[in-house]
Amino acid sequence: MLNGLMKKFFNKSGSKETAKKRLQFALVYDRLEVSEDTLTDMQNEIVAVISRYFVIDREKLKLDITRRNDLSALVFNTPIISAKARRRMA
Amino acid sequence: MQGKIIVISSGKGGVGKTTATASIGAALAMEGKKVVVVDMDIGLRNLDVVMGLENRIVFNIVDVARTKCKVRQAAIKSRRIENLFLIPASQSDNKDALTPQDMIRISKTLRNEFDFILMDCPAGIERGFENAVAAADEAVVVCTPEVSSIRDADRVIGLLYAKEIPSKLLVNRIVPTMVKRGEMLSHEDVVDVLSIDLVGLVEADDQVVVSTNSGIPIVMQDDSKAGQAFKRIALRLNGQPELPIEVPGVSKSFWKKIGSKIGFGK
C-alpha cells in the first residue's frame, strides 16, 4: 500500500527522478557553499523576473553550477513556452 | 619509458574501489603490461585479501617510505597473473605514517619499474586521499548510482580538478532492471549530474562476491559481466580511449550502435 502511495506522489517517473532532483540541488549548494534558502530565494526572484516577459515551463527549470577554467558558472535553464504581450512598452 | 600512475578514488567508502583496482590491475597485466597495485589504505588494508595475497606479505608501502626495504622487495608477485604485483598497506600504522612527499619520491622508482601503477585510495578526503593522489597522472572516480555516492564523487572530482589531475568516472553496481523501472539513476543521469566523461559502466554482479571470497580476480572469469566490463575499462586506460562504452543489461546490437556513436563523438 505504501508503495502504491509513493508511486502516486512521485508518479510516472519512479524514484530516480526524485533522486536526481535532490542531487542536483545538493550539488549546487555543495559547490557554491551557500545555503539552500539563499538559492531558493534567488531562483524565485529569477523566475519572477523572467515570468514578466515570458511564459515559462516551471516544471522543467534547471539550476546548475559548472566548473570550467577555475570559474564557476551558474546556469539557469528554462524552456520558454511563449513571449508575453508587452503591454508595458506602450 | 615511464609508467603511468592512476589513482582509483571515490570519496565514499564501500562503492567498489578495491575491487575496481584489483580487477583493472589484473586486466592490464593480462594485456601484457607490467602492473603494480598499491594499497594506500594505511591501517585498513584490504587489497591483499581481495587479490588472494594476504599470506605473502613481508614488507609494505610504509616500509618503502622509511627505506627499510626496496620497492622490489615490497612488491608481491601475483600467483595467478604474470606481471601483476601488489604493494600492500601497513596494518599497524595510521595515515600520518606517509606524506605526499614520500609518495612523490617513491613514485619515481615505481614509474621506472612498472608500466602502470594503480593507487587504491582510501575513503575520505583527508591525508590518505592526499597521499594517494600526490603523484597521480590520472584518476578513475568510482561511484554507484546512489545519491550519497554521487555527492561524494562530485566532491572528489572537484578536488582532483583543483589539483589538475584529469579524472574519468566509473559507475559501478548498476542494476539494469531497476534502471528500466525508473527506480535507479541511469548512467546518463549520473553523467548529467556530475558533468564528467565515463571510463566504464559495471553491472552489479554476484560473481564479484564469489571472486573476492576466493581471491581469484573477476577478470579471469569469462562469464562474469562485471569482469568483462573491467577488462574493457583496462583497454580504455591502455591506449584505447575510444572503445565504446557498453551499457549493462540491454540488447547488444542496439547499444553497440549507440555506443559506437558515443565513441565516435569523443
Describe this structure in words.
The complex is a heterodimer of chains A (90) and B (266). Chain A is an alpha+beta fold. Chain A has one domain (14-82). In chain A, 49% of the residues lie in helices and 23% in strands. In chain A, strands 1-4 form a two-stranded antiparallel ribbon. A two-stranded antiparallel sheet of chain A has the order 2-3. The N and C termini of chain A lie far apart (57 Å). The mean pLDDT of chain A is 77. Chain B is α/β, with parallel strands linked by helices and 266 residues long. Chain B has a single domain (4-265), classed as Rossmann fold. In chain B, helix 1 (17-30) crosses helix 11 and helix 5 runs parallel beside helix 6. The chains are: A alpha+beta (90), B alpha/beta (266). Chain A binds chain B through residues 13-17, 19-20, 22-24, 26-27, 30-31, 66-67, and chain B through 146-147, 150-151, 154-155, 158, 161, 179, 181-186, 189, 192-193, 195.
